[in-house]
């Protein structure tokens, strides 16, 4: 579960960096882009799903027994291959939501999931959803 959540968050971050002109870019994503923080690449399955595709093509891959559908997109580093960015992110784990229950956007947070300790920042990419702790 940890690997899936992390992989999808990373893939979404890569997608957000590509879609600078998209009106749905969240304030949290914009501030993360500007902060210069380094993000690991999407999982290999996301790259493999777009190995013989063009930007904008539909794609799909399986990770941790979950089937992910998406769109092939170029990340912020144009020298890297295309990766499959998920169409719809899964809901964050309850531990992520609990970590930000009494916090504000931008606050530091941490939670444990599947024997992993995750530290991050409380973010709310969609105003209709609660804050969640994002790595």
Spatial extent as radius of gyration: 15 Å
Pairing-aware structural class of the strands and helices?
Answer: alpha+beta
Number of strands: 6
| Helical proportion, percent range | 25-40%
Distance between the termini: 14 Å
Order of strands, main sheet, comes to: 1-2-3
User: How large a portion of the residues is in β-strands, by DSSP E?
Assistant: 25-35%
- What's the shape? elongated
Supply the number of structural domains: 2
Largest sheet, strands/sense/barrel: 3 strands, antiparallel
Query: What letter string, H or E per element, gives the SSE order?
Result: HHHEEEHEEE
Task: Count helical runs.
Answer: 4
In terms of per-residue confidence, which ranges show pLDDT below 50 for 5 or more consecutive residues? Answer: 6-38
- Residue-averaged pLDDT, rounded? 75
Quick rundown:
With 135 residues, this protein is an alpha+beta fold. It has helices at 2-18, 27-34, 44-48, 94-99, and strands at residues 58-63, 66-73, 83-86, 108-113, 116-123, 132-134.
Description:
The protein has four helices and six strands; from the N terminus they run αααβββαβββ. It has helices spanning 2-18, 27-34, 44-48, 94-99; strands at residues 58-63, 66-73, 83-86, 108-113, 116-123, 132-134. The model is unreliable at 6-38 (pLDDT under 50). By secondary structure, it is an alpha+beta fold. β5 and β6 form a beta hairpin. It has two domains: 1-88, no CATH class; 91-135, no CATH class.
Topology:
Blueprint: H1 2-18, H2 27-34, H3 44-48, E1 58-63, E2 66-73, E3 83-86, H4 94-99, E4 108-113, E5 116-123, E6 132-134
Antiparallel strand pairs: 1-2, 2-3, 4-5, 5-6
């Amino acid at each position: 579960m940890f690997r899936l959540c992390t992989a999808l968050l990373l893939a979404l971050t890569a997608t957000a960096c590509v879609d600078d002109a998209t009106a749905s870019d969240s304030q949290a994503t914009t501030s993360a882009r500007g902060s210069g923080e380094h993000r690991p690449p999407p999982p290999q399955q996301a790259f493999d799903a777009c190995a013989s595709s063009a930007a904008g093509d539909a794609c799909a891959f399986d990770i941790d027994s979950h089937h992910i559908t998406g769109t092939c997109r170029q990340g912020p580093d144009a020298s890297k291959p295309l990766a499959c960015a998920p169409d719809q992110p899964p809901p964050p784990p309850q531990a992520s939501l609990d970590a930000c229950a009494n916090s504000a956007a931008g606050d530091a947070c941490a939670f444990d999931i599947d024997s992993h300790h995750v530290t991050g920042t409380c973010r709310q990419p969609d105003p209709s959803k609660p804050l969640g702790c994002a790595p």
